[in-house]
Specification:
Layout (H helix, E strand, L loop, with lengths): L14 H8 L4 E3 L2 E3 L6 E4 L4 E4 L3 E3 L1 H7 L14 E3 L3 E9 L14 H18 L5 E11 L2 E9 L3 E2 H15 L1 E8 L2 E2 L8
Parallel strand pairs: 10-12
Antiparallel strand pairs: 1-2, 3-4, 5-6, 7-9, 7-11, 8-9
Helix pairs in contact: 3-4
């Protein structure tokens, strides 16, 4: 389930009306369902500053580029606040199939572009099933079979069991091994069995 951010510019006087009428509702159109609409960032275009709503904080890009960190005011209208429960996954997949050798070619070749596109599409088809999926980016290819370094951002807390199953399914599909690191809020759901 892909997360999208949109910028809605309204007069300050209608913010309460827009908040009451637009947020916390679901909308369906053309086979798409919009739900969980939230106001993450509020800006004053005249002062050219913004602040994060409750439960949100500045993205890593805002923190590194403009020193807008945490949920304080930022002197820029370029960035969007992200959920405080954002989870970042970084990992390496070791692929044994010769079908992925094209990913080791020069980035300008057709073989590389085709391999990179197919692998990205396959990986997204798995990780995009996580609620709050924001993005997946392959960051590097290395030799030793074909090793793929990647990052996934999920702007919601993630159930550990769901992440484990998604990652297991991906490794089975690609006949690969996986090392995965997480940063952020993971939910561990335990089953208690009484004896």
């Amino acid at each position: 389930m892909q997360v999208y951010f949109l910028k809605l510019v309204v007069d300050e006087s209608v913010i309460p009306i827009v908040s009451d009428e637009l947020l916390n509702k679901s909308y369906t159109f053309n086979n798409y369902v919009l739900h969980n609409l939230e106001k993450t960032t509020e800006c004053d275009p005249e002062k050219k500053n913004c602040f994060c709503g409750e439960g949100f904080e500045w993205s890593k890009a805002a923190c590194s580029e403009k020193k807008c960190c945490g949920n304080g005011t930022c002197e820029s209208t370029k960035f969007t606040c992200m959920s405080e429960t954002t989870v970042t996954l970084t990992g390496s997949l070791a692929l044994t199939s010769e079908a992925f050798h094209g990913c080791l070619d020069d980035t300008e070749t057709d073989d590389f572009k085709k391999c990179n596109k197919n692998l990205t599409t396959t990986m997204k088809s798995f990780y995009s099933q996580l609620f709050g999926f924001h993005s997946l980016k392959i960051t590097k290819y290395k030799t030793g079979s074909v090793i793929v370094d990647f990052a996934v951002i999920v702007v919601s807390d993630v159930a550990l069991t769901e992440l484990e199953q998604t990652s297991r399914d991906l490794t089975v599909k690609l006949n690969a091994s996986l090392n995965l690191e997480t940063r952020g809020e993971l939910r561990l759901e335990l089953l208690v069995i009484e004896i």
